[in-house]
């Protein structure tokens, strides 16, 4: 069964700074920003562009999953859109046959960005062991943590 979950958040960080962190520093930032969920991140192949594959090890905050490999399957810098598809582990072991997170960034001011988070997924059956809405919530929480981190990194 094919489904989609959506969420949205506005952050007080300019689009270029936020985009740069998402595209260039994702594997390094996840363990720093959400250490209870992601304990390690590694870029297995690629350079942060289309086709890049990441390996993430999960912490105690992620029940029933120890790791996940994700590939950047969508990347459009002109509209600030990135899509990461789970290709191994993670939710694929919990009844999902397809799982993709997409973040669409839209500038709403010089130092404000609207982030639309979407999870597209396919399940083998009606019920799964992991409600997808949790991932949309986690994605939004990550964006908020990233906002706080980037605001603290900027010179005063």
From TrEMBL:
<dbReference type="InterPro" id="IPR023393">
    <property type="entry name" value="START-like_dom_sf"/>
</dbReference>
<dbReference type="Pfam" id="PF00407">
    <property type="entry name" value="Bet_v_1"/>
</dbReference>
<comment type="similarity">
    <text>Belongs to the BetVI family.</text>
</comment>
<dbReference type="InterPro" id="IPR000916">
    <property type="entry name" value="Bet_v_I/MLP"/>
</dbReference>
<protein>
    <submittedName>
        <fullName>Phytohormone-binding protein-like</fullName>
    </submittedName>
</protein>
<feature type="domain" description="Bet v I/Major latex protein">
    <location>
        <begin position="33"/>
        <end position="152"/>
    </location>
</feature>
<dbReference type="InterPro" id="IPR050279">
    <property type="entry name" value="Plant_def-hormone_signal"/>
</dbReference>
């Amino acid at each position: 069964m094919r489904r989609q979950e959506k969420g949205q958040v506005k952050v007080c960080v300019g689009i270029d700074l936020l985009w740069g962190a998402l595209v260039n520093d994702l594997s390094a930032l996840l363990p720093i920003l959400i250490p209870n969920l992601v304990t390690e991140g590694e870029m297995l192949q690629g350079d942060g562009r289309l086709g890049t594959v990441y390996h993430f090890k999960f912490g105690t905050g992620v029940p029933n999953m120890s790791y996940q490999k994700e590939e950047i399957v969508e990347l459009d810098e002109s509209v600030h859109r990135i899509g990461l598809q789970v290709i191994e582990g993670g939710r694929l072991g919990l009844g999902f046959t397809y799982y993709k997170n997409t973040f669409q960034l839209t500038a709403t001011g010089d130092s404000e960005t609207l982030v639309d988070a979407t999870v597209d997924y396919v399940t083998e059956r009606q019920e799964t062991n992991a409600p997808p809405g949790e991932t949309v919530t986690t994605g939004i929480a990550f964006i908020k943590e990233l906002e706080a981190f980037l605001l603290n990194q900027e010179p005063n």
